[in-house]
């Protein structure tokens, strides 16, 4: 069974993020859900952004590093939206990554915002909706295509719809059918790492 760390999205560690982790746990995997906001959750993306990017914002890189410091090296790093920044950074820079699941966001592997090339032998899945203003509209889908094309074990899954944070059952953006399919695909990856 896989050992996974799932980084929450910009609204915090919501009940819907915990529910997604619980789905993966029910399949026998260990899923860690660090709370980088110290218990705070936010009602909107804008409120979460004001907290996480505003004056006095937490140092999310340091908090994420601390969250995984005591965990084994062979983790699958997963993130939802802004949580992808931590998941992808750690998958690309912390030795021993077993895989990565990037939901609704993807950093480029070349150019100005790049962390660097994708590590050899680390499988990756990227999931997002085709009309999501953030994933499709801000270039993440293009970064995902570049990433997947650069590795022998990369998959990009695009779902019909315009919702962001569609896998969070505690938010109005939740899409049950897309989340079921996402979880089926993620569990397939976790079963083989």
Automatic annotation (TrEMBL):
Start and end residues of each Dienelactone hydrolase domain: 122-192
Gene3D superfamilies noted in UniProt: alpha/beta hydrolase
Coiled coil segments of this chain: none
EC number, UniProt record: 3.1.-.-
Highest taxon of source: Bacteria
UniProt GO molecular function: hydrolase activity
The protein's enzyme class: hydrolase
Record's protein name: Dienelactone hydrolase family protein
Organism: Nocardioides hankookensis
